[in-house]
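RECORD TYPE: protein structure
NAME: Lantibiotic dehydratase N-terminal domain-containing protein
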Amino acid sequence: MEVLELFRMQDTLAILLEMGAENAKTQQVYSEENQRILDSIGRLLQRQDIRQALFVSSPDVYRNAVPKVERALAKSHFNSDARRALRTVFAYLQRFAAKNETTSFFGTLNYGRVDDGWDGWARLETTVDRKEGPGLAMGEDLVTERRVFLTFWALSALAEKIAEEPEFRSALPLHLNPMVILNADGLTMPDQSHRPLPPWAVAVMEAIENGQTRSQIQKTHGPRSQILIDKLVDSSILRHGPIVSSSRLDALEELLAMVSDLPEGSARDRWVERLTTWQQWRAQMSAASFEERQKLLEEAALQFETQTGLSAWRGTGAMYEDRTIYYEEARGSIRELTFGRRLHEDLVYRAEPSLQLSAAIGKAQWEALQRSARAVFMRLSPNGTPVPAPRFIDAMKGEVPTMPAVGTNEAQRRLEELVSNQSADADGCVRIAPEQLMLKEIEGPRYSLLDVFIGAKDMDALASGNYELFVGKMNHHLLLNSWLTTFLPSRDEYSCQLNNRLNETGLSELTALQVRRRNKGFYSFPGERLVYSDPIGRFDKAYGVRATSLARAEVGLDDDGVVRLMVGGKPIPLYLTLSDHQKYPPFAALALPWLAAPEIDLGQHTPRIYFGDCVIQRQRWSFAAEALNDLTEMSGVALLKAAQTFRQTYALPERVFAKADAERKPIYVDFAVEHCLVMLANLLKRSTAVRFEEMYPDAESLWLTQGGGRYPCELRIHAIYPGPVAKVPETTRAIAGAKLAAGAEIA
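PREDICTED:
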């Protein structure tokens, strides 16, 4: 956060407060302070960690915007083009400093553990604690390991080119579209239509499902089998070529192993060499200096474009969208973060009421969705006979396009009433006693992956139990083996532990949707999977992945009249692999009830909400964008003054996050930083509404300090509630070593 402090115009604001209006003296102080800030920007752009972070985030911005800013600084003159470039560069700087994101070396991954055998609160040891010399720890000083990977889309592009090699035509595997079912007399298509096939063609399809290649099939079924295969490949019923796993970290190595097993020939030698070179490139990038990385990326981009005919860049220059052929994860400098028994028990005690509230809200939302799902199902099957899952999903998609509102339940309405009654007398926050809502115990099995924020003055305060707890987003997920576990010592062991935990808590029947990877993200579910986009590849099968086509699943009613997914006639709960799935009614209706954080909106101002000893919602302010039109027409001292007037009028803190409908992500706004205000003004011009939310924990409550700097962070913590039939021994331990406490486990 200290980086952003360099941009604050404290002297200008002080003189404005003293004078009460803009005058020559104010303008002089502003000019001097603006020059100081421009000098600071110049020094920041000389820092290798800043330059590298810009390059990793957007090579286009690094190559185009940064030189424009540097030239303008050298000439002490900013034309409109240079000002746009400066706004772009600052947008990335505020993102680096104020957002919790796992991205390369400026958004590192760290791991902690719970030790119930230690009767303490918390202890922290970092590698930076041992750093000698003055100044803040910068960039790579906070990194202990870096690993570079090819993105899923880049690997898929290479795999497609491998499949096009004539030399591989007879030897590469064939895969049936997972949404097509092979029957005794033909194929059931994704739209449930029937495509008849003669007996010999059915035999060919059976051979394909048994893993036979073109050459093996031709020996048995003759040339006509090849004509059939070509037609089915052209119509996307069959897929020819290697499958890049969407659930494995080492997909490049697996692609190389598959090509190495192909018959000898020039194409095999060429692709083995190419993929081996990509392996070497990954290792070089992981260890390279910034200067070396730029050269390596240029070489890789040319190599990729030569091999695939595709550009190595996607979404060039767009914030959050600039995607190249690689991504990087980095492990941070935390050597040890241990939560002892006292902190563990206190976290459970504080979080428990908010989790009960969220379970009540989530269940009410799920029940509303279930009513809609039941109506759809009964229309499709008046006698209650199960229907094919794809048919139900298509019907739900058309008839129930949106999720039920979170506010359509008694717990949410009662909470909003209590908050509203206290808000008039609130000094920015209200405190609601959980007893006022008379919440019930959570009926398991339930699970959630919580975004948890701890606010404390420093580590000593946290280690003595002096902290505040904020439970933010509640993800209807488990902490799967994924990009988040890149640096775990034993990832396979972790999957085994998670699978055991699911068995112990009544969640063993969870079945996950197998999805195509999105950029860097991959998720490896330890249990049964349903496939609907990509088939399961060779190496997933080798590792024992169990999968069923979604096309073979049905939807029916269980004994309690709940709409359920059925596999082999047995009702199963659906695991929603991506956050988007929870917003998609056809999938969400087939999942277990979830935990949903309350959404309280009192209009222009909603205070911070404490529910017991846990914050459940930050303080927020909502406005139509036109209410801030004045800010979009001003600059310099006038902009600073107008922003301060606005802030003081509505009692906003100095530091907030602003979320507008024109942008996917919020931006950080410090009302004492003109560059933040310019960024806000440009956002307002493109938006119809804006919501400000306090920075909480605030800058003074960032307990993670390293090398003299203060760093924002968030924790990912499991909350798992066992089902009523689960038999959980007293000795059971959660994945990270936590115990069962107060009905929930936090691991």
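COMMENT: The first strand starts at residue 113 and ends at 115.
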